[in-house]
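User: Structure please.
Assistant: Input sequence and predicted structure:
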Amino acid sequence: MSASALQASTRPTVLEPSIQATLSVPVVSIVMPVYNEGPKVVGAIQKAVKMFDSLLFSSFEIIVVDDGSTDDTLSALKTIKDERIVVVGYPVNSGKGAAQIFAFGFARGDTIIFADGDAQAFPDDLERYINALNHADIAIASKRVPGARVNASVMREFLSIGFNSLVRILLSLPINDTQAGFKVFRRSALAEILPLISVKHYAFDVELLVVGKKVCNCNIAELPATVTLTSGFSLRHIMRMLLDILGIGYRLRIKHWYQDNYRSEHEQYAPLLRW
């Protein structure tokens, strides 16, 4: 599926793309979705720029996607003056997954990084993630491998362990942690995965890795995460994630929709429940 088709599949329109054709093509594209972050979004983006400046030996761009914010997030983003930062967005909140799929249409690097906009999961050893792509298709931060440093409440830890255990049981996904907010992809791998994605909200990361591992046969490397978790989940969010996981299992194990549509032109999957 072409980049334009990926953008069209999300249905929102661009508020203000700021890619400048005169810039050289970057090696790495970092995608950061944001939603109602307000003025503090500026600090998170500046932190990302500083980190990538110090840890990356390659040229990069940061694509910030305003996921339909209703506060002054977009106004704050407009104050950032850096030619490496690309600001795009759309008027209606559509979910982190929709934002990352949308941004892929603007990304120009051969290495694509999906990073949460709050910058809570940025690793200290970024080059290790980039170098992991020498033998893997995807490198992900994981809170469940040796060397990981996690600062979270007992309840957040309990929910994280329970969620990942459920994913392993229901989907037979041999990955310890799907939800840490930092993932690095070969562009070629992501281009095969994204056309098969239907989840646009909280279980997007699960579907991304299920399709990558079980359908596209991607080699996935898990690296230690350094993360501070402060946000929580409501019961409604937990139930939606559970239903999304069941839907992924249905498409994978019963309907075999992913397998039947891999590398084929197809209509986007129409889920039974629309959020």
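DSSP finds ten helices and nine strands in the chain.
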